[in-house]
Fold this protein.
Amino acid sequence: MGSYRVITIIAVFSFFVLQPLKDALASPFNPWIWSNRLVVIFDETNHSPGYVSQLSALGDDPEGLEERDVRIISVFGDEVSILKPNLRAYSGLRYNTSAAALRRHLNVPYGDFSVFLISKDGVVRHQSKRTLSNDALFSKIDEMPMRKEEIVQRKINELSSN
């Protein structure tokens, strides 16, 4: 009976502790963890109304995106693009995760419009089937503990430089 209990404890530990750790390590967002927040946009094509609307909204405030360390991953069809806050693609950047893998990871059916906000620790903080305004996006980011810490640190740096 004692060994059965030990095996049960190990199995439960593996399921509840090791599996989430394994999932986190296998995240397609690992290249950006701890350095960038991500807005991930899915749609059927880069001409679809949802995609065009979301990029237009994001393009209204590239400085706000840059200040919040936001990078944009757009997924349409079988293509994945990484965009800077000014909506220009990174030249020479290779991202080795397929559109299908991103759809699978975030559970987005092919052709559906969805927008995700991924925090610097790689956690999905918001998901929407509608265009996300910059006000809503920035509000969600600015509520994050890490962002609050960044704001405080910036103010300290500004005060110390004066």
